[in-house]
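Tutorial handout. Part one gives the primary structure; part two gives the three-dimensional structure as tokens.
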Amino acid sequence: MGKMIRSGHRSSGHLRGHGAKLVSADAKDLLLAKAEQQQTQSQLQVEHLRGLLAREKNNSRRLKAIYQHCPVGYVTLDEKGLITEWNQAAAEFLEERKRPLLGAPMTFFPVREDVGQVLDHLSRCKQTDGGQVVTELRLKRSDGQIPVQIVSVPFHQGDKVFFQTALIDLTEWKKHESALEESKKFSEAIIQTTHEPLIVVDVNLRIVQSNEAFAKLFKLPRRLAKSMPLEAVLNLWWNGNRLRQRLEDVLLKKNAPLNNFEFEVQPRHLGRRIFLFNARRIRCAENSPPALLIALEDITARKGTEEKLAQTNRQLQLLNNELEKRVEERTRELSASHKQLEGFCYTIAHDLRSPLRAMAGFSAALLDDFAPQLNGRGRSYLEKIVGAGEHMDRLIHDLLEYGRLTTIDLEKKPVDAEEVLHSVIKSMQPAIDEKHARIDRKGKLPKIYGHKAVLEVAFSNLISNALKFVPAEKSPRVTIWPEEKDENVRIWIADNGIGIEARYHGKIFEVFQRLHSRDAYPGTGIGLAIVHRALQRIGGDVGVESEPGKGSRFWIRVAAAG
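Part two.
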């Protein structure tokens, strides 16, 4: 029993020792696993850090590339103003080939007069708490000098301070600024030389600017006018509401200009005045409140003249009305008198023609019945009586025709000129045959806008003259052709006759104007006057081109039909 117990005691201890060994081995394995895990995590962290470092180097290279190729020149200055770093644009800007940039003081580059500005710029950079420091100056260049703006921002690198500085070329901006200044001066010159008073007022209708014409009109120097209320200048305290409202409307609305707004004011030292106001909304500067450009035109004198003219016109109208009444009465009287005279003329003409025809008839009868009983002188007298009677009859006939064409109503309408000409030639065929004449045609006559009777009178008189005024040894030759131009038609009637001197080209169309004796060329001297008067009645005309011995070319001008 005792052995067993001891034996059991040893066995129990042996088991405890073996379990301790087992526990120690498991702990080691666990520690190794943890160590491996930590090593893996450390390796991952190292790889991550390496990636970050690579990306950082990448970004650094990219930033350096951007820095180097940036179109804006950049330099880094130390506290003494020496260049420690620069990009390509700065190297070109500062002409690196002329002098090395590393360690070069920034004071080397400006013109002599602007060196102090660089020193002041560096001083302000040291005093700033991180904000921008901006200075404008001029840099020396081999091709002259250029205006630049330098903008510096301080940054720390360890215990040292540096200034990252941008160099901005202001050449184009200065040109633009100069052009704007020139434009401003030009505009100012135009405004000042304009005869009309011009002002610019702000949103409170206070004068911002005025020209010399305004100062002269209102006897107010420009320096005193500035900032004055428009109401005070124009004395609008009591009656300016309508004008103020219109001006404020222009200020509020972009596209609502004020055009020729007539308004009566009573400025001091001027008294009653009537102005035309023209206003446009403008801006004096970018992002500034709107303003008004106002042009004033003093129309007081003009309105006074217009009032006088209106009064005069009213008086003239009264006089015209009275005159029209008198003219109407006189016209009625003249019309009645004209009718009486027309009737009187026809009566006289009829009464004259009857005894003339009787005288000519009895004289012809005497010649026929008693010729053997008369001597040569008696027969000659009777022949002259017959000839004179017939001439007087033709003369009265032509005068009646002239008067008829002067007084009758000639209603214009389309007329076939070719048809009228054919009818006239047919009626004159016996005279044409007797003279052994030749009528040549060049082209068909068009339709005209006129009167048939007028065209018949013109054709018959001009063709009759062409047959008549020809030397005895020649046979008459007449050529007729049309000529259309614009809205008119010219009809030419040319002959091979004796011709007319240039000084008589106008006279032959007057009544009783004869160039030859009746014995040489019979006629009354009224035919061409009848043609001229008849064509005038329908808005036409007649003329001639002629030289002595070279024939004549008569033309009539009438309106073309449609």
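Part three, for discussion. The chain has four domains: 70-169, 176-298, 303-408, 409-560. Residues 300-370 form the longest helix (71 residues).
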